[in-house]
Amino acid sequence: MSVLLLRLAGPMQSWGTQSRFTVRDTGREPSKSGVVGLLCAALGVPREDDGTLANLAALLMGVRVDRAGRIDCDYHTAGGGKINGRDYGVIKASGAKGDCLPSTRYFLADADFLVGLEGEADLLRSLHKALGAPRWPIFLGRKSFVPGRPVRIPDGLVEATLEDALRGHLPLPRENYWLVLESSDTGDEVRMDQPLSFRLDARRFGLRHVTTKQIASGEEVP
Predict the structure, then answer these.
(1) Measuring CA to CA, which residue among 69, 146, 64 is closest to residue 106?
(2) Staple 131 to which of 26, 152, 166, 184, CB 3.0 to 4.6 Å?
(3) pLDDT tens, 94-145?
């Protein structure tokens, strides 16, 4: 099997799957919808291209948590005050004058992940090339969260199973770590982050199955 490895590391990342406007959550590991969105940006795929999205979403994804980081949050406001002497605010659904709208936005601080994508070799090669010269800016879940290290790994195309590729890539974490591996049928957990459509007027996500494996530092790859 062919696997493409990516490095997602930075001072701030956010991988929300249940966000509402006033509270933006983050998962403990990168979401599949977030990673596929990053790949779409690298390729320059518009939101309306459902065909390319389906091909990318069909890749099996795994995550090695090299550094879990910590969950923190920011207090944000949107609107309020004046711009050029005119009131500025978030317009209400009724069309009434907008007010200042506060929100709480959670994020991961100082986290480091190795992400693997398993699938057809030609598609993975095109993704590997695109990550070296992305068409559009890529970010770690939110547009303000830029990668702290290159996402593209020069030797990131490997022939192995998804789990073996993640467990065998050097350098290995110094401490105990865990793997989150997607399954095509069943798993220990169901997550609502399988992207079905990125269209602004019809964003949709489905369920996918994952299994989490705790790995002791220094444990050999089977």
Answers:
(1) 69
(2) 152
(3) 656 667 777 888 899 999 999 999 999 999 999 999 999 999 999 999 989 9
What is the DSSP code string of 134-198? -SS---SSSTT---SS-SEEEEEEEES-HHHHHHHSSSPPSS-EEEEEEESS--SEEEEEEEEE-
> 2-71+108-215 belongs to which CATH class?
alpha beta
End-to-end C-alpha distance for the chain, whole angstroms: 17
User: How many angstroms separate the CA atoms of 25 and 31, rounded?
Assistant: 12
In this structure, are residues 68 and 28 in contact, taking their beta carbons and an 8 Å threshold?
Answer: yes
Indicate the pairing of strand 101-119 with strand 23-24.
Answer: parallel
- Reported as a single tens digit per residue, the pLDDT across 155-180 is 999 999 999 999 999 999 988 999 99
Distance CA(138)–CA(122), nearest Å, equals 22
The model's pTM: 0.87
β-sheet bridge partners, residue 97:
none
Residue whose entry in the numeric block shows the structure tokens 């019809």: 202
Query: Residue 12, SS3?
Result: strand
Q: How far is CA 116 from CA 36, 59, 71, 113, in A?
A: 12, 10, 23, 10
Q: Which of 144, 103, 172 is nearest to 11 (CA)?
A: 144
State the average pLDDT over residues 72-77. 84
CA-to-CA dists, residue 149 to 146, 188, 214, angstroms: 9, 31, 25
Residue position matching structure tokens 């590991």: 29
Q: What is the DSSP string of 58-81?
A: TSEEEEEEEE--EEEEEEEEES-S
204 beta partners = 197
